[in-house]
Design a protein that fits this description.
The chain is α/β, with parallel strands linked by helices. It has helices spanning 4-18, 20-23, 67-77, 112-120, 128-138, 155-166, 183-196, 229-236, 255-259, 264-274, 290-299, 328-341, 354-366, 380-391, 431-439, 457-470, 482-489, and strands spanning 24-25, 86-91, 145-148, 176-179, 205-208, 224-227, 249-252, 280-285, 304-310, 318-324, 346-350, 371-374, 397-400, 413-418, 448-454, 475-476. The longest helix has 15 residues, at 4-18. It binds adenosine-5'-triphosphate. One of its GO terms (molecular function) is RNA binding. It holds the Pfam family Helicase_C. Residues 136-306 form the Helicase ATP-binding domain.
């Protein structure tokens, strides 16, 4: 497979990782000034953020959850399938055809070159979504599919295998079309296609992304095209680089991220309408809110449906406490007392604004802690590099804002501190974020500790509402009482 275009993306990532040292606070470093960092997020959907002077008010864009950036971040920090348990729900279009499930890649009857590609990637067995979706995607006649499964469960590998199984390398025109929400995500998926298709030397991949300018009248000979909706639409219509009538497989990846970007929904639908009736339509998404569902049904006629549900997260193995303080200096003192009394393998500390996070990281660093700071103004590659270092244990404390709370699996984290409680944009408790934040300490049944810092009547009220929501007592902790601190450590 052609690899030139991908090599460029790898270089970009490595260059980004090199800037890491500026962003990880060592004992002698000054905390970075958030004003001096620029944010480019993830291409099309990148954020633009303003600083907010000396005030600690949250700006509108501060911590804005950028779905595309979060998805890219998850991909960059993930080095293997996330280990979670899933229940599967399959709705088949034809109830009479029993869904056969496969337990090995051999049972999928993949072409030998693909099997070689799969094993070369280090996959031994199909994941749940692969086991369920692949037999449907590879069935004859081809069937349409809408599939939902959490981030990192193997969706990309599943549809890449489907595309590679259907393509005929002897025909030198586009046969598979894959839409990604951003340039960077398209490159990530392209990388998987390159790796899996490694044993098909005659197979070629084209990137329909901004900046890839082709001469008018050019006809694309690559069999697979991956790109963003705007450019793909131009290539199929105005520029006629692709003949949409010859497309056999149409994949719409990350549908939830796609619809979060203005215009992508309409462009995707316009592309879909140009495809032949018998083209196989596949749509994947990590989440399935109503809006995603409506979009999926517009794009995929007569679909089979697969949904995977993660088992409920619980707070059962996590001890939760709160500490009463009057201001952020007192919160910091309480934090130092906690650190002085109990041994903490690794901790994550969540702040409401990046300004507080930056201040706190600086203070902790002055106290001699090895601190990593993660916040929304960093480019995604920089965030991934910071998380990687933390996972490797190079820093023991990670100070972060909400933007990075999801999708990070760090097994060694034994304590989570909510320096500020999570609230939504209206100032109400954000229970879901609370669960995500502190849920990471009690993974796989291990015991964890969560400490909430309270500095006002308002935050006490938020805490009480969180307590009611989960119906779980959050106990008071006096951080000046060393005996009490030692007790919780045991
Ligand atoms: N069968 C498998 N065995 C082992 N590892 C796998 C398998 N399938 C995928 N992986 C690996 O697991 C990770 C996640 O897979 P993948 O990117 O396909 O998930 P995804 O569901 O598409 O994620 P996202 O929602 O972020 O797009 C990747 O590093 C991939 O190489």
């Amino acid at each position: 497979m052609a690899t030139d275009s991908w090599a460029l993306a790898v270089d970009e990532q490595e260059a980004a990782a090199e800037t890491l040292n500026k962003l990880v606070l060592k004992e002698d470093d000054e905390p970075p000034k958030s004003e001096s960092n620029s944010l480019n997020g993830a291409g099309d959907a990148g954020n633009t953020e303003k600083t907010n002077g000396d005030s600690d008010e949250k700006t509108e864009d501060d911590d804005k959850e950028d779905k595309a950036a979060q998805s890219l971040l998850n991909k960059l920090i993930r080095n293997n399938l996330v280990n979670t348990t899933h229940q599967v729900e399959v709705l088949q279009r034809d109830p009479n055809s029993p869904l056969y499930s496969v337990k090995s890649f051999e049972e999928l009857r993949l072409k030998p070159q693909l099997l070689q590609g799969v094993y070369a990637m280090g996959f031994n067995r199909p994941s749940k979504i692969q086991e369920n979706a692949l037999p449907m995607m590879l069935a004859e006649p081809p069937q349409n599919l809408i599939a939902q499964s959490q981030s990192g469960t193997g969706k990309t590998a599943a549809f890449v295998l489907a595309m590679l199984s259907r393509v005929n390398p002897a025909n030198t025109y586009p046969q598979c079309l894959c839409l990604s929400p951003t340039y960077e995500l398209a490159l990530q998926t392209g990388k998987v296609i390159e790796q899996m298709g490694k044993y098909y030397p005659e197979l070629k991949l084209a990137y329909a992304v901004r900046g890839n300018k082709l001469e008018r009248g050019h006809k694309i000979s690559e069999q697979i095209v991956i790109g963003t909706p705007g450019t793909v639409l131009d290539w199929c219509s105005k520029l006629r680089f692709i003949d949409p009538k010859k497309i056999k497989v149409f994949v719409l990846d990350e549908a939830d991220v796609m619809i979060a970007t203005q215009g992508h929904q309409d462009q995707s639908i316009r592309i879909q309408r140009m495809l032949p009736r018998d083209c196989q339509m596949l749509l994947f998404s990590a989440t399935f809110e109503e809006s995603v569902w409506r979009f999926a049904q517009k794009v995929v006629p007569e679909p089979n449906i697969i949904k995977l549900k993660r088992e409920e997260e619980t707070l059962d193995t996590i001890k939760q406490y709160y500490v009463l303080c009057n201001n952020r200096e007192e919160k910091f003192k309480a934090l130092c007392n906690i650190y002085g009394s109990i041994t903490i393998a690794q901790a994550m500390i969540f702040c409401h604004t990046r300004k507080t996070a930056s201040w706190l990281a600086g203070e902790l660093s002055n106290e001699g802690h090895q601190v990593a700071l993660l916040s929304g103004e960093m480019v995604v590659e920089q965030r991934a590099a910071v998380i990687d270092r933390f996972r490797e244990g190079k820093e023991k404390v990670l100070v972060t804002t909400n933007v990075c709370a999801r999708g990070i699996d760090v097994e060694q984290v034994s304590v989570v501190i909510n320096f500020d409680l999570p609230v939504d944009k209206d100032g109400n408790p954000d229970n879901e974020t609370y669960l995500h934040r502190i849920g990471r300490t009690g993974r796989f049944g291990k015991r964890g500790l969560a400490i909430n810092m309270i500095d006002s009547k308002h935050s006490m009220n938020i805490l009480q509402r969180i307590q009611q929501h989960f119906n779980k007592k959050i106990e008071k902790l006096d951080t000046d009482d060393i005996d009490e601190l030692e007790k919780i450590a045991n």
